[in-house]
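N-acetyltransferase domain-containing protein
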Amino acid sequence: MRLVSPSLEYRAAFFALYQDLETNDSINAEYYREGIDDFDAYIQRLADEANGINLRKDYVPCSHFWMVDTKENILGVIRIRHTIDNPFLCFEGGHIGYDVAPSYRALGHGKTMLKLALPIAKSLGISKALITADEKNHASRGVIEANGGEFIDIVMGKVFPYPVARYWVICEADTCS
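Structure:
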């Protein structure tokens, strides 16, 4: 498995990811709807975000990656925000957010995806990443903890009105575990 930058060559794989989300996790599917409506513009927006260009209000530069298998299926999506310089990100959003495709959950792919992303975060100047999860999402919390997540606290989200578990994860250039 490897992380790739979103690109037009993954159109069919992205549509399959979206269909999996729409069928099995419709709440998270909405976040990716823009890619279904206009895939080319979506890919351009993600590239622009990574370069800090044309950012939407309250957005920060953010690098997006898709974890693909040897058959080029998208198993998950991970976002690395270059900074957390706004109230939402520094409180409940964090540096890194991710989604594992429903059909590929509970197979260790989240742990692998985060492990692959941490050296990239380090290369972006993030030595310690804030990563958050819904307090009740034990699978996501396990992903963070398996990658060295040090529990900070649980806060009541302001944008997402539920308890959010917050962790610090040290990023290293060569290995993060």
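The chain has one domain: 2-170.
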